[in-house]
Specification:
The complex is a heterodimer. Chain A is an all-alpha fold. Chain A has four helices and no strands. Chain A has one domain: ACP-like (Non-ribosomal Peptide Synthetase Peptidyl Carrier Protein, Chain A). By secondary structure, chain B is of the alpha/beta class. Chain B has three domains: 158 residues, ANL, N-terminal domain (Rossmann fold, 3-Layer(aba) Sandwich); 204 residues, ANL, N-terminal domain (Rossmann fold, 3-Layer(aba) Sandwich); 89 residues, ANL, C-terminal domain (GMP Synthetase, Chain A, domain 3). In chain B, α2 packs across α3, α5 crosses α6 and α7 crosses α8. Chain B is globular and about 70 Å long. The N terminus of chain B is likely disordered. The chains are: A mainly alpha, B alpha/beta. At the A-B interface, α2 of A face α8 of B.
């Protein structure tokens, strides 16, 4: 579960879908600020780390693909 | 304490030692002394706020307020003037708000997430004389309390047109946002109402503060009640479940988590929460809490999950802080509720609306909540069933879909638009000619705050219309047209 490479697009889509009780098929590519906070929270619980992001990284998390990329970077950067 | 023109001067004298005075008594003079006596009164070393673990004592907050007051007066703000705060929840916001009130001016609260366009439009419309904002970054989306330095801009405005201490904007059903005003007496009455509700945090306890202090739950239920009652305000370092629990565990005294249902979700998602005997209760407002969510919270934390019903126009209306009547709530002391034609009405002597005379919203001393609901005459309990208009709640923030649709329709290149709530704000847009979709998205982002914007936008060659040419709003028809 704590595999540093484990963040997949499907994981992030599933996290977003769990906010507001939607299906993964209903999730678009854009992420708003509330979804962003939710995704970071869910990722912290799932991967057991605190994810500290820079302003630049937050800015890149406006899309699902961007969020996947940033979470991979951030989780890989957490000291083990 | 007042200068020759009725302006509060910077001085070292404070009436802090006034005691045994009720909140409403100080309002009889109609002055701004209520700030000192209702909100800032108390022991010098009493802690008001904990920011990142650093306590801020009442004496320090008073000094900070006086400093902000000096700066605002230097910028031209006077008693009876009008200042807008466009700040995120922060110490700067707290101190500037109290300073504006202490000057005897009106504070217009503008959510920091509003776009420049929305801020300028509101400031022009309301005649704001002094705008307190921040330059540059709007801060991390995970920050609950922001560390910001304010900038003060003097504008060509006019003195406050109404006697309200605070003006808040509510997403408008007729296009632009509507102004909602509350007098100091009304704010103090709400603070007093909180003191009479069983289950609120008690003096010496803590509030783990999650909702924005720009909106009524965080403003009055958190900031003003906390300052008045001597309840410490503790915003978590970050907007995550672990961080909320860290805030609870950061002190020894009982802690109430104040938030909206989104925040229950954060706590419910904590995988293996540690036991925190300080956690006394969680209280939420903003929208109904699904039964599955409350059950999951109860299983995980085993403390009461309280519920509050309120609105910007008058604050807290009814509560169920022990989770005994879910989903029903009991009217707060002094609040009179009646049901008319399926809508819940609240007695309110004067209309809270600024520049708006609409008998469908306020008439004959009764405020129309636009909430459908039932009042059980045998128990006095009220059950809110949902909205009767186009207002929706996004993470506790009210958004009127008509405002979104109106803004979208006004954009260059948009022929027609329908905005619905289909688990999220969803727009169906018909463009003129070959106008680019991206340019519409960019223009909308300039005019509407992110939390108001559609999460999904469907661009269509032609929107479905009735035989008489009216836009079809049936979501099934629109979904089918998209697919």
């Amino acid at each position: 579960m704590n595999d540093k490479t484990a963040v997949e697009r499907a994981d992030v889509v599933a996290m977003i879908a769990s906010l507001g009780d939607r299906t993964v098929a209903e999730i678009g590519d854009q992420i708003d600020s509330m979804q962003l906070a939710w995704v970071v929270n869910q990722a912290e619980q799932r991967y057991g780390v605190e994810i500290d992001l820079t302003d630049g990284q937050y800015a890149r998390m406006g899309t699902v693909d961007g969020a996947v990329e940033v979470l991979r970077e951030a989780i890989a950067a957490v000291p083990r | 304490m007042k200068g020759p023109f009725g302006v509060y001067l910077c001085c070292s004298f404070f009436p802090w030692e006034v005691s045994a005075i009720t909140a409403s008594e100080v309002l009889r003079t109609g002055s701004s002394e209520w700030v000192d006596e209702v909100l800032l009164n108390g022991p010098d070393n009493g802690v008001c706020l904990h920011l990142d673990g650093a306590p801020i004592a009442r004496a320090a907050l008073r000094r900070l307020v006086v400093g902000k007051q000096d700066a605002l007066v230097a910028a031209g703000l006077r008693e009876g003037g009008c200042a807008a705060l466009n700040l995120p929840p922060s110490l700067a916001y707290v101190a500037n708000l109290l300073a504006v009130w202490r000057i005897g001016a009106q504070a217009v609260l503008l959510d920091h997430r509003l776009t420049r366009y929305e801020v300028d439009s509101a400031a022009d419309r309301l005649g704001v004389q002094v705008l307190v904002g921040i330059g540059g970054s709007k801060g991390s989306p995970l920050a609950v309390f922001h560390d910001v330095a304010e900038t003060i801009t003097t504008r060509e405005g006019r003195p406050a047109a109404t006697p309200h201490a605070v003006l808040q904007l509510s997403s408008g059903s007729t296009g632009p946002s509507k102004g909602i005003g509350r007098t100091a007496a009304d704010l103090v009455a709400e603070v007093e109402r909180y003191t009479r509700i069983d289950g609120v945090p008690l003096p010496g306890e803590r509030i783990i503060l999650l909702p924005s202090m720009v909106h009524v739950l965080g403003l009055v239920g958190g900031l003003l009640y906390g300052l008045h009652a001597g309840v410490e305000l503790v915003p978590p370092r970050r907007l995550t479940g672990d961080s909320i629990l860290d805030a609870v565990g950061s002190g020894a005294t009982p802690a109430t988590v104040l938030g909206v249902p989104f925040h229950i979700g954060l706590l419910n998602s904590v995988a293996d929460p540690r036991r925190l005997p300080q956690l006394k209760r969680m209280t939420t407002g903003g929208e109904l809490v699904p039964a599955t969510v409350s059950a999951a919270f109860d299983e995980k934390y085993g403390v009461p999950l309280g519920n509050m019903w309120g609105m910007t126009e008058l604050g807290v209306i009814a509560t169920d802080l022990f989770g005994e009547h879910r989903p029903a709530v009991r009217p707060a002391p002094g609040i009179e509720v009646r049901e008319s034609g399926g809508e819940l009405l609240i007695r309110r002597p004067e209309s809270p609306y600024v520049g708006l005379s609409d008998p469908a919203r306020w008439a004959d001393g009764w405020l129309h909540t636009k909430d459908a609901g039932v009042l059980d005459p045998s128990t006095g309990l009220v059950t809110v069933l949902g909205r009767l208009d186009s207002q929706v709640s996004v993470g506790g923030l009210k958004v009127d879909l008509t405002e979104v649709e109106h803004t979208l329709t006004e954009l260059p290149g948009v022929e027609a638009a329908v905005v619905l709530y289909d688990k999220e704000i969803t727009a169906f847009v018909q463009l003129t000619g070959d106008h680019a979709e991206q340019s519409v998205a960019v223009a909308l982002a300039e005019r509407l705050a992110g939390y108001k914007r559609p999460r999904t936008t469907h661009f269509m060659r032609a929107l479905p219309r009735t035989t008489t040419g009216k836009l079809v709003r049936d979501r099934a028809v629109l979904r089918a047209a998209v697919s």
